[in-house]
Write a structure and sequence with these properties.
By secondary structure, the chain is an alpha/beta fold. It folds into two domains: about 5-80 and about 295-375, no CATH class; about 85-290, no CATH class. It is built from 15 helices and ten strands. Strands 2, 3, 4, 7, 8 and 9 form a six-stranded parallel beta sheet that branches. Strands 1-10 form a two-stranded parallel ribbon. The chain has a two-stranded antiparallel ribbon with strand order 5-6. Helix 1 (about 5-20) packs parallel to helix 3.
């Protein structure tokens, strides 16, 4: 419920925004805006001090220099996918109970000939304690909400690690009798943080959509590669290179369809040429896969078409043009350049995703950057910065 003071503020801001767009919000738009403000956006944790969403929304629209651009920006607002803290917490529960448990049950039934494929009841009674004792759950970032993950899934504190770079003596103790390493992450847009090839040519290869979604056996990347990312660091830090019995299971709460396919292909390719040992025992089990068709630009760098969203009347062409027209105000860092810039988000993913605690750089820069006097709608806290 809104307080009278909040509704008065809303009406004043609505009048100001009506002037910016050259027309009034419809009744349906007002209802939608109030709902998003109250249920979702007011809980974004990176708003500047003293500003709520509506005030931030008004200031964001002032960035645009024409009524036409303001209208397109409002259209973009309606297409943002916002993950609240409660929704991420729910995914942490779903990931464990629906995906990780199933993974272990399938391991049990495959390992024991006296169990049929879906005999989960006897698998649980006879073998669950043994398999869960051989499992460890490791956070790759603070966004993994690993403490909540442990509590909501009733896990033993000894089986949960808050960050993979723990003290090596503690690490050696944790490794005893462990076979299944579950790496927990919150969101994966391209997967470059998890696994990447530092070669410039190979970086472009693995961010090209045609490379990822077509089964081509030609024009493969240069084998003189230099792999990096959380996966390689984890394997090295935990000294898992030579143990063929271990299995690594990457478990993001949310992963884009592109990132999942990209990582699976990279692991298979570099495993095949001996750059990643035991690659067939590295798995990706996400809580939710964000569909490729939910992007909000007309086309990506590969020129592949995406779903038209006809039922919603989304202005793909207009949003793409906004990204082109205002990019002169964006300041690229070295990290951004690795992903081909951010004109359509890092890696040209064309996403409009916001999480309650931060906005991914895979989302359109229009939403999150603050360069050259630009006021962001959802300010991003950059993890990768130039010195």
């Amino acid at each position: 419920m809104f307080s009278q003071q909040s509704l008065i503020k809303f009406e004043k801001l609505r009048e100001l925004i009506n002037k910016q767009r050259g027309k009034e919000f419809s009744t349906d738009e007002v209802k939608k805006l109030l709902f998003l403000w109250d249920y979702k956006y007011k809980n974004y944790q990176n708003f500047p001090e003293g500003l709520n969403f509506l005030e931030n929304f008004y200031l964001w629209l002032k960035n645009f220099t024409s009524i036409e651009d303001v209208e397109i920006a409002i259209d973009l607002l309606w297409k943002i996918t916002f993950y609240s803290q409660k929704e991420i917490q729910y995914l942490s529960k779903l990931l464990y109970r629906e995906k990780i448990r199933k993974f272990l049950f399938l391991k049990i039934t495959n390992d024991h000939e006296n169990l049929s494929s879906f005999d989960y009841k006897n698998a649980y009674v006879r073998h669950w304690d043994d398999y869960i004792s051989k499992s460890i759950f490791i956070a790759l970032s603070d966004g993994a909400l690993i403490d909540h993950f442990r509590r909501v899934n009733n896990l033993n504190n000894e089986k949960v690690v808050p960050y993979y770079k723990i003290h090596q003596k503690v690490q050696e103790e944790k490794k005893k009798l462990v076979k299944y390493y579950f790496l927990i992450e919150d969101f994966v847009g391209t997967g470059t943080t998890f696994l990447r090839d530092e070669s410039e040519a190979n970086t472009k290869y693995w961010l090209n959509e045609e490379t990822i979604f077509k089964d081509s056996k030609i024009d493969l990347p240069d084998k003189n590669s230099e792999l990096s990312g959380a996966l390689i660091k984890f394997i090295d830090y935990w000294a898992l290179n030579g143990n063929g019995d271990n299995e690594i299971i990457f478990c993001p709460y949310i992963i884009t369809e592109f990132a999942r396919c990209r990582l699976e292909k990279m692991i298979e390719y570099y495993g095949g040429i001996g750059k990643i040992n035991n690659s067939k025992k590295i798995h990706i089990i996400p809580g939710y896969i964000y569909p490729n068709e939910s992007r909000v630009i007309e086309k990506c760098s590969s020129q592949s078409e995406i779903r038209k969203w006809d039922q919603d009347g989304i202005n793909f062409e207009g949003i793409s043009k906004l990204c082109e027209d205002y990019y002169v105000l964006f300041s690229e860092t070295t990290h951004h350049k690795i992903g081909g810039g951010c004109k359509f988000g890092f890696g040209n993913r064309g996403l409009a995703i916001v999480r309650y605690n931060n906005t991914p750089n895979n989302s359109l820069y229009l939403i999150w950057h603050e360069n050259n006097g630009w006021h962001p709608l959802f300010l991003r806290n950059e993890r990768h910065k130039d010195e």
